[in-house]
Queue: 4 jobs
Job 1
Amino acid sequence: MTDSRNLFNKVWDLHACQTLPSGQDQLFIGLHLIHEVTSPQAFAILRERNLKVAYPERTVATVDHIVPTQSTARPFVDLLAEEMMSAIEKNCRDFGIRLFDLVDNRQGVVHIVGPEQGLTLPGMTIACGDSHTSTHGAFGSIAFGIGTSQVADVLATQTLALARPKVRKVEVTGQLKPGVYAKDVILHIIRKLGVQGGVGYAYEYAGDVFDRMSMEERMTVCNMSIEGGARCGYINPDQTTVDYIKGRPFAPQGEEFERAAKWWLSLASGQEAQFDDVVVFKAEEIEPTVTWGITPAQSVGVKETLPTIASFPADDQKVISEAFQYMDLKEGQPIQGLKINVAFIGSCTNGRISDLREAARIVKGRHVAAGVKALVVPGSQLVRKQAMEEGLDKIFEEAGFEWRGAGCSMCLAMNPDKLQGNEVCASSSNRNFKGRQGSPTGRTLLMSPAMVAAAAVTGAVTDVRELE
Amino acid sequence: MVQAITQVTGSAVPLLLDDIDTDRIIPARFLRCVTFDGLGEHAFEDDRIQDPAHPFNQAQFQGGKILVAGRNFGCGSSREHAPQALMRWGIQAIIAESYAEIFFGNCVSLGIPCVRASRANLEALTKLISADPRTSVAIDLLAQTLTAQSESGQQVKATVEIPPGAKQSLTTGGWDFLGQLLDGEPKVRAQVARIPYLQKFAV
């Protein structure tokens, strides 16, 4: 019998415990990831109500947002950060939750750690008090960000009250051009579908472009689903998925792994699978993409000029004007050649080993341009270790980059890494919101790690293909 | 059981901008905390510093209970600190063209109704409250209407939308989901037995 359900609905159905009076489902959460920023108030709710953690073995904690990337000596210089660090240590101790802390080499950005450790598996429901939880959808799981009240719900019951979203299949078919990365694919999708195009939907990314991607590339794509409004984005599990998971510390082993792999592959949306909507993009149309504005949809191909305000629908013109004003850019100007002050390589979007390898390949034998501050922040301690074993740290340091410890760093600037004044930052992160990188007037240009490397060594937005 | 919320009435704050993200509602540096206390005074802090005319800076909008916003309000980071900051500033309900999903869910969990209105109605409402900040705005969640009346007697009446699940939860006092979820424990246990990865992939 063929199953006409897509992966999303198969996995949802399997985790739905009951329908609540509101019409929402009570959904079991297979893996709960927590970090220091959005969990302390949730533990306070448990203490207030005298509740225990229902399934402590199904929650895993690490620390990332506030972690300094230069010195992790305790106590931290920032006493507020120190208080948060102490709080998660105490909460994990009191409630019996596994914590990958700073002295554990498994520590890192939560969305890098889950997959790296084999905690993230296909067919799971995964929640975390962080919007980039969509990253884990790369494995064919339903993974989404939640607020702190919901973190408390998961801790106390391992479930959430949620309404089932619709599912849109986003197909990209054909051959990506040289110099076009997973980051460009997702920036292109967001540019075309808009920052709220995905509200109410989960995105299934399908087509031969995603079939050929490595797991790390798939994570980059799924990571930014939320920037397109989709709380959740996923890719069907295949042999690439199975091969990635095999042998990871928390993954099933031996015969159990064989049974697991069979089940994982059976979850993929089949030929008959139904969707609420389907959109198709051609891979050949995707260029190395750079954001110029204050939302991730405000982007252009590196060879394009910035749009005119009048080219947008009337309702959009106000926010487009606001973007031009904040960024101090002009309609019709080329993006290529725009001077930068800072280059940041890292984050849950692009802080994995393959990202560092690509950036290092561009940087090798070159030097960071005069006046540019450039930093590389590995996504986890294990990514950092791997990179050092491959000599990538030397390549970066010889080129004038700062080689840092693992953490969220300048993606959101809750730690000492911040832009100053109205600096322009070429960034491999995920958000170009006003003030996002820690200076209320700082300006962010999102792009692939290879493009950030190219900008770092030339001092301006550069088509990475011209450096090959 | 928490309090049922069927209507919110009060003065309003006009902020008819699109794609306002949660970093703008509460900049990340204020998330260095272990409680939500004191977030209210930092709502929109960087926008307010850069724009002295920001409505949250203006004396006539202090005490506003209802925020009027544009499209995709609350996009970006999942931080519940954002609705917490708005709530602690005094906001009890939001009328906007649309909302980001995580922000919307966080608001429901805090008992802050987020209703949708058409662009034309939001513009009419903004015009009215900008001209007369003492305009009284009433949102009726059961009837799904908003009624705004200025002191000079000018009115805006409109229908508003709210998803049925959120409406049911708010208007029956079921928006604190934790109690309901705890009560479902036997059903959760039954479901756990059917989930392959919780049973060594042997079911």
Job 2
Amino acid sequence: MSEREEPAGTEAGGEPWPSRLYRHLKHVGVRQMAFVPDAGHAALIDLFCADPDVSSNVLTTEEEGVAIAAGAWLGGRRSVLLMQSSGVGNCINMLSLPVIGRFPLLMLVTMRGEWAEFNPWQVPMGRGTQAALEAVGVRVMRADTAEDLVETVESAAALAFDADQQIAVLIGQRLLGRKKW
Amino acid sequence: MTGNMSDRPRLQRRQAVAAILRDRGDTLVVTGLGSPTYDVHAAGDHDGNYYLWGAMGGAALVGLGLAQAQPGRPVLVITGDGEQLMAMGGLATIGVAKPRNLAIVVIDNQHFGETGMQASHTGHGIDLAAVAACCGFAQARTIRTPAELEELCAGLRAPADGPRLFVVKVEAANPPRSLPSRDAVHIKNRFRAGLGLLPS
């Protein structure tokens, strides 16, 4: 179920985007990571979970990660939250906390339901992801190529951690590649 | 199910929370929305308190993030049965994360007190301490008597092998509200300043 074709953004010989994101997030001081898995995040999850300097938390539902990120910031740590688009719907009321408390929040959201999606159950939340986030006050950025994704996450991390913003970066399904079944 | 134990005298929530916080030392406190937030404020406002006024189901998880970020400080979450019931999955997440410096106290009046005292699941026999025990908490107990409460207070600051959860059964009453600031940014910056962290 978790198998995918090689991500479209991995050039021959080039560093794949998950490790570029990992290096940048480490560079800006991220020490906590929380996730509900998605195949598109698998490599990034593995990199963080193997890092003894990062507290990585597997979640039962994505909203837990929103609260963990706020607690981490209260204690002086920067964090990142990984999920797929279906998980955004699970987060909405919990996002009240970072929005009203102006807590830095960096969410990386892999999209489903929008590009070569074969599972119709993914479509409604995929269609609603950006609107739902914006409705509750989270700023949405989006990338559809590996190059753009790395720059977008760099920008999003600065906005989150330096400007106290709540940011979700949507990672386009086209970038992630068609899921193999 | 018969879980209401209505024939037994119950602890009073304000006195119980005041006793738990009496010798708090350098404990950092996160409160769940509604009465626990008022109870903690009534026990004395403190820079080391983070009061939630919403984000139901978030208190224990804010506590987890804080405990991981501040491993040298005891972190105490004081919340209600309704708030913790919304985060039963979070007990599994905390059980996996195994922070040694996190304790959760559920002030359990077996009702949703903020909204008209509708009976909650704990009043129907659902046992949050048993859930926490199944989730691998190092300690999980239900407190019903003043003697048990004193024992809890004495042991709260002792080193632990992992996360702990204590259900404190209290009378279903709404004492006068004691309202902390609702300015979440102010409380955040005050809390961080107390840890020597600058506003960004």
Job 3
Amino acid sequence: MNGPHDLGGRMGFGPIPLEVDEPIFHADWEARALGITLTCGALGHWTLDESRHARESLPPAVYYSASYYEIWERALEALLLRHALVTEDDLARGQAAAGEAHPRRLPAARVPAVLASGGPTDRPVATPARFQPGDRVRARLMHPKTHTRMPGYLTGRPGVIEADRGGFVLPDSNAHGGGENPERLYTVVFEAARVWGQGAEPGVTISADLWESYLEPA
Amino acid sequence: MPHDHDHGDHDNHLDPMDARVRALETILVQKGLIDPAAVDAIIDTYANKVGPRNGAQVVARAWTDPEFAAWLARDATAAIADMGFTGRQGEHMQAVFNTPDQHNVIVCTLCSCYPWSVLGLPPVWYKSPAYRARVVIEPRAVLAEFGLTLPVSTRIRVWDSTAELRYLVVPMRPEGTEGMDLTALADLVTREAMVGTGLPRLPA
């Protein structure tokens, strides 16, 4: 979906908000929002792709007026409701009946190991590569209403394959319970002038990492 | 992390987001879904342990050890793991090297993908709509706002982190740093230099 998150090339957002000596968190709640988002993710009810989709599905007026951790908090509430881990009544009351510990509740002692191992998303792909480095391709013209990692500013644009990165989980299906369906991922290079046309800054290329089904020969 | 009450007011005037996040955490703990000590441990990791000093050590080693630099270029995930930096949002690393001809800059236009294992959590500017929107269409103008003006003869490559590859920019080693040790070199390597919105500091 080309929702409010699909920002590449959009105008009107003003100067870059630079801060001197900025803190890691600007309020305690930001730190708590990060921590509860990660601990809830560890329960295993949704994928990273589904959580990204929950964030980008916020209404544009909400998305643009929220700080990043507010976006995380709102999306986490939506995920918890969707997966029936909390109820609207719980959220309205700010209290819930005591429950048994979830079997995959993350204990503090496991946090270092979980963070240090992360969640690799590379997967073997049996089919031969459709594209080779140097091939001219086009980012398919596509506007799915569901989650995708094809940025709107690149869809339909011509580029060149720079590298074959091997197989990776396909977010477009994995965000919606459709399984990992790994596909080969390529780094594709686009000339800025072929993306933006007249007035593009000189000597600029842009690359994106795009799945095989996002691409067609050009 | 202690809760912050120094807003010059009392608890019934909490920031709405503070109240909202506290309420959700309370519910999650009551329902047995999270352990608040695990939340504390995650915060401690990113507040105190994982940050841009990790990446600076990688860059300093690459500046001084050509074999390591070659390994970093070939298999950044393995080379960085060899220094003990692994994990969440750094599972699939790529190192991109600045040259006199090409300057690299990293963005995630679709969210805020960032190499946590080497740089820690992203700063506000990296997550801002302004940066995400603008750096792909006017990177020279954006870099100028950071105080970095590159000659027109230097090509700019903007890497949009659309998948799970996470990028670390390896800036060029500043002149006048011959003979400096790894610690002193790492002190020159800023977070912005490793995202590509800045250059390393010059030696004093």
Job 4
Amino acid sequence: MQLDVGIAFFLLGVIATLVRADIKFPKGLYQSLTLFLMIAIGLKGGVALAEHASWNLISQSIYVILLGLLLPLIAFPVLYFIGEFKRYDAASIAAHYGSVSVGTYAVAVGFLEAQNIAYEAYIPLFVVLLEMPAIAIGIALARMKKTTKDSSENSQQTNDKYKLLHEVFFNQGMVLMVGGLLIGLVAGDRIERVTPFFFDLFNGILALFLLEMGMMAARRLDDIKRLGSFMLAFGVGMPMVGGLLGCFLGLAIGLSPGGAILLAVLGASASYIAVPAAMRVALPQANHSLSISSSLGITFPFNVLIGIPTFAVITQWITG
Amino acid sequence: MTSKQFHFSVSTGILLTLLGAVIVSKAPIGIGLIGLGIAILMLSILTKNNKHQNAQMPSLPIPIEQTQQSNRPHSTKRVR
């Protein structure tokens, strides 16, 4: 049995933190790795879009957006009625689980390439599309019951709305991935000038990113203990539901098994970069450590270690 | 933990264990699912009598830069 290199680096990060090895990434390196992955994924998607753009892609995109709207609507009642979280907290966590994690997507791409499983290279377009709907649904769910407001509250909310719209449409992930997509789309053959950096180094950079993520997840172990068994069950159960929905949807809209696995991973992943920033603006009352701890401490490690291979097995099982 | 939370956790644990048992015949990753399912079941049973966990949630983590700043020793010199 061979262990995936990315997973091995993730485990190394976890072990290094547990044995208190003094590994410190230079300040800003994690941010740089994230930026690199976002641009590289965007560029790859743009190149693929230029080669495979078709009308079919529009209908596929609509279904993907519907998936993004559905996921927080599944998560919210579980958190609000069963978990008995406050409305703001439940809505914020639901938004995180409805959105996507670029890091998890990058790991899934690395996994498919290591297993030689073909996939539609334009899936980064779906990553971009899945970022936004969950944020909108999360905010709507949180503010559903609020009916009375005075004028000062109104002006404050208008101010917040602009901040929020800016955060939703111009967050770093959105700008870099959409920018990468567009550059990849229009660059043509000239993209070869940057492929040695953005394409050939992708797996090495991903390994470094996973090392840091492993350390980060291990540092959150205490938070997980405090979150308790309900959040552990939710942090694992929700990705399974989202992943299965993504897998079925992927196959239903005509994606290849590899594409369906990637859509499953997108459905299973929980955001920890774009949505936290948007939620801090939109729902400052919510306890943001809850959503970050569960998405980063439970769901990300679950997807990397168990979720991605499980969705691959299930998808290949269904497609025979 | 409330009874609804307990039932949710136990059901999730059982479902994961069953899914793992089905998958293990196809791929060894099923063992991971079984382990996780059993872990959730055990944790649910062990923490059944705890009060609602929402009240004990950790506060926002302090960014590293702030922690480093707050750990700096304060100057004890007084300006005369």
